[in-house]
């Protein structure tokens, strides 16, 4: 079988926008010049956004070219991408199953709670970001977060898991949950919508 016809079941990495490349390069250049400086993300992103707005089309050209190259890479990889049978089954099952409205809300991992708190700040600081860009930035922020910050969100996640376990016991006995979910869980559907938007964008 020719090498060029080989299909991959590994989903391609999402494509990057011109603005995302601009921010990435700005961050890399800043780290080279100030390796010891503790960058405040909100301030740095705001400066990047302001600088991007004042740049001419000529200055932005190289970033758009980088984005075009990455778009072609993504489209080519998507043509060679074949979802595994296991993944197809999971996606089909996920879309077809009706969720019981009385069932407890699933517990959120620490990273999801962190993302829910920080997502609006990232979007506000980077209005040109796509859903995929936002998720990548949140992932970077989480990986670079102080241990104390991660510990705080892990405690919230542990509390939410305990809440879920309690409610599941009640749900299995009575078929419903009497107590309303806490604030961290109320935000869960919003977060799910963001993830679905990102999936749709990557699938296009």
From TrEMBL:
It comes from Rhynocoris fuscipes. Belongs to the HMGB family. Residues 74-89 have a biased composition (Basic and acidic residues). It is found in: Chromosome; Nucleus. InterPro entries: HMG_box_dom, HMG_box_dom_sf, HMG_boxA_CS, HMGB. Residues 12-82, 104-172 bind DNA. This is HMG box domain-containing protein. Residues 74-114, 172-204 are annotated as: Disordered. PANTHER family: HIGH MOBILITY GROUP PROTEIN B3, HIGH MOBILITY GROUP PROTEIN DSP1. Coiled coil: none annotated. Its main location: nucleus. GO terms for molecular function: DNA binding. GO terms for cellular component: chromosome; nucleus. SUPFAM superfamilies: HMG-box. Keywords: Chromosome, DNA-binding, Nucleus, Repeat. The keyword Repeat applies. The keyword DNA-binding applies. Residues 12-82, 104-172 form the HMG box domain. It comes from the Eukaryota. PROSITE patterns: HMG_BOX_1, HMG_BOX_2. Pfam families: HMG_box, HMG_box_2. Residues 193-204 have a biased composition (Acidic residues).
